[in-house]
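pasting for the record
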Amino acid sequence: MMQGFTMMRRHVLAVAMGGALAGMLAMPAQAQQAIRVAMGDIASVETLGLLIAMERAKERGVPMELTFFNSEDVATQAVVGGQADIGVGAPYAFIQNSRAPLRMFYRMSTLLFFPVVNTDHYTTWADLDGQEVTVHSRGSGTEALMRLMESQHGITYSAISYVPGAEVRTGAMLQGTINASIVDSSGFRLLEEQGGGKFARLPLDGVNATDEALYGNERFLNEREADVAIFVEELLRTWTDINENPEMVAELRTQYDLLPDLPAAGVDDITPYYVSAAENGVMPLGGGTTDDVADDLAFLAAAGQVQPVEGDVDTTMFWDFDILTAARD
């Protein structure tokens, strides 16, 4: 009798524990802390792809929030210090110099920028010798690109100024406060439309490198691996959708009420920007490869931003491909 009671008690306890465990496993991810994404830029049309992927991840139970910082440097420090979980950028130099446990895990965009000059002052790269140029932020792809051109053309800038936001730099060029900078395709179209023919794009010689990637602290990536995997799956899906149908971005912006304060000119530029991005491969499919890492390091080394890597590149120093590989599969 007692043995039967004990067996029944164990059965009830097992059922109760199993039910409790099932309940814990079924708890929505909203009960967890939101994944905090840090971006060293201002909200713009370029941000919409990332915002859409974040909204889709939320729909699958992964809470996320995006915070804008003054620069990529500040955003990186926020990730290092634990004030943010994921950063937006390509911190190869920071990782190499500091040995910080940061790893990139998704390649969001490739460099497609437009070095532009006011032809009232300059017309060639040689004209920029001894002159000031303006880029996005310290350590950014825009700075690397301008540094590389400085080396390739045998010139030396008098100074490099940092002004976050391609649209901000575009506006400054229209206002005449800067005369040599680097902007995106939207900015260049605006300069062509409103610049009265005085702005010209300087030529670039075959540059293929990452503009922005997503990265996180190794500990965070391990602790929240399942949630980050869902986020990566939605990034892959969103990037594929945009490349197949760039017009969807404007529709999803309305659906998710993203960037509600975007000015009318910005709203009008959404579809042209993403059509151009799709045509020029700015939003690459697949999320990144080890070959991309090697290309990035070669580019940044040529631009003087990282130390050249001897021999085979140890990609694990900079990237964690495990989550991306799992998401692809």
